[in-house]
Amino acid sequence: MTDSRTSSSDSSEFSGSLTVPPPNGVQSRISADGRHLLSPEVSRHWRDVFWLILFVLHLVLVGLALGVFGFNRFKMKDRLNIDKYTMGFLENQSGLTEDYWPMYALAAGLGTVLGCIWLSLLGSHAIGIMKIAVHILTTYLAVISVLCFWGKQFVWGVAFAIGAALQFLYVVSVIDRLPFTMLVLQRAVKMVWNLREVMGVTCVFMLVMLLWLALWSFGVAGVVALSFGDTGRWWLLVVFSVSLFWTGAVLCNIVNVIVSGMVFLVLIHGGRDAESMPSKPLLNSLRYALTKSFGSICYGSLFTAAIRTLRWEIRGIRSKIGNNECLLCLVDFLFHLVETLVRFFNKYAYVQIAVYGKNFNHSARDAWELFQSTGVEALVAYDCSGAVLLMGTIFGGLIVGTCSGVWTRIHHPNTVIMVGSTAMLMGMILVGLAMVVIESAVTSIYICYAEDPLLIHRWDAEFFNQMSETLHQRLQHRSARAREVLRRFDSQTQQTLSA
């Protein structure tokens, strides 16, 4: 986090005028590099190749396993004689792949429809859609918790109840930040809605995800129909769900890199049709994302989502603790640990990957140091756009999981939780592919604001003034907090010495 001296100096810099230009060195570096960004003439190197190989190998092995499990129960029980290896020590049950595959087909179709609806509605009703996602998610989680208790699924009932409570606490803790968050999201939607080509790329990757989900759901339907008993099937579902999560995150972050590169170029060159724009920027960005930067995307996709979610939850809990010193020390330790991880795994790395072709850790560290050195980290910490978009993604996934679960309960009541939970994951990934377009624009806006605020001013002067005013307020707030901590420390030190 930015210390008091940095915050104080940054606060004084913005206190005089909200339109102070950046140092000449920063501005000239961007103008010099800007015309060459994503240009095919610029030499790039392969990054994080180990993770690229690991991801491809994982896809091959998981794909083979999915095919085997799905085919083993397709139109014939135990076609590949897998049951003979489990006979005698695992529970046997009868079932076929095609008994459960239609439930997953419903999940894939509904997830795709919801993703497309999100994309279309965000263009015209962005703020309303986001508010609905924020406020209705807590209620929806609570309702599902009650239904789980009613169906005697106590573990899942407790899990959804805890989720509803955490969601409620988080929204309450950040309620004052939502107006600024909605402002940022509105401008991000405005940016991507004028780049129709990136919307087309998103649709293409949703189709790619659907193709992989066809195989994944075929294999998972075969797993649900297996005679491995509940414990064995759950372990297999966990393994395949982790694989799907990584695959979905990789596809989302490929879109992230492509959109980030396009938004960054548009802001630097002052428009999509500017003469200084590189030729075929979208194709070049796509080519880099699928080749030399693909390893970095695979690497970052393993960790960024989990660490980011943990960071949001700890921030919300930390702001509501009060004067419980023991609990505050524990949460502060976790907070600083997560903040250290964020330095090496943050979503802003994908902008640096898209624009400069760095490896993931280098990109994440450079982005975070850029924010801290300019004071923009205070603005990034105040913004909740990523959390709001995640809420929309979870809400979409819950709708998909509920619909598939209800259908499964009618025909196969013993496997409702298995099918419903895995269908929810499918829905979250498909809706997340639509949401990542907006999140990419948000991250690019912050990176551009940190590198050269005048880029934002040239694009939208009113938005620039609102961002600068909010940053000024946050830096003043941090300076006041730092002075208060120093006063408490001095007071405690004097009391200790006098005693």
From TrEMBL:
Question: Which keywords does this chain's UniProt record carry?
Answer: Membrane, Transmembrane, Transmembrane helix
- The record lists the membrane-crossing segments as 49-71, 101-121, 127-147, 154-175, 198-228, 235-268, 288-307, 387-408, 415-438
GO CC terms? plasma membrane
Q: Which InterPro entries match?
A: Choline_transptr-like
> Which domain of life does this protein belong to?
Eukaryota
The way this protein sits in the membrane is described as: Multi-pass membrane protein
Region annotation (Disordered) maps to 1-25
Tell me one GO molecular function of this protein: transmembrane transporter activity
Question: Which protein family is it in?
Answer: Belongs to the CTL (choline transporter-like) family.
Q: What does this protein do?
A: Choline transporter.
Its name, as the record gives it, is Choline transporter-like protein
